Amino acid sequence: MNQIQPDLFQAPPALPEGFQYWPDFLSADEERGLVERFADLPFKEFEFRGYRGNRRVLSFGWQYDFNRMELQRSEDMPAFLLPLRERAGRFAGLEAAEFQHVLLTEYAAGAGIGWHKDKPMFADVVGISLGSPCVFRFRRKAGPTWERASVVVEPRSAYLLQGPSRTEWEHSIPAVDNLRYSITFRNLKPSHQPER
Ligand SMILES: O=C(O)CCC(=O)C(=O)O
Ligand SMILES: [Fe+2]
Fold first, then answer.
1. With a cut of 0.95, is the ipTM above it?
2. Architecture of the domain whose range is 15-190
3. DSSP H or E run through 38
4. Where are the domains of the chain?
């Protein structure tokens, strides 16, 4: 007789170690205010060696130039993002000022982001979501297959990628149904602090 394998009946796999999720990180008013501000910001189409990612981005503090493969200084973080950076610091257990880089990303309906790990000069990532919900997928090589996990990331929430969720797992977001923005704060690894 076959033995019942309890593992098969368990809930979906746990999320990667080091991932944390904070629903309602923003109030609905804050979300509205930010979306209004974003409408006036000079987002640029993300383009990597002629490949268009179908999303638009804007960086402050530092910016990773995908074509030159290096960090470059960009404009200072605007004041309206500083209170969020404080909150992101508390969430991540870091001094807010350590988040020297923020990337704003606009995903029009149908846009997503493919499998990747964030660039190695960055340490932790706090991502704040506005607008459409999305599926945040993780995968990690496990022998010949992939170990997978995913979580629905709701508007106004924040997530933290730290530890294995940041260093061992790749992440991606399939095409969103409606406009979504993310605000991702990143600190730089001590070994990768560029000269000022
Ligand atoms: O939009 C997001 O929440 C994640 C974006 C992302 O993975 C990245 O910019 O590296
Ligand atoms: Fe990423």
1. yes
2. Sandwich (2.60)
3. helix 28-39
4. 15-190
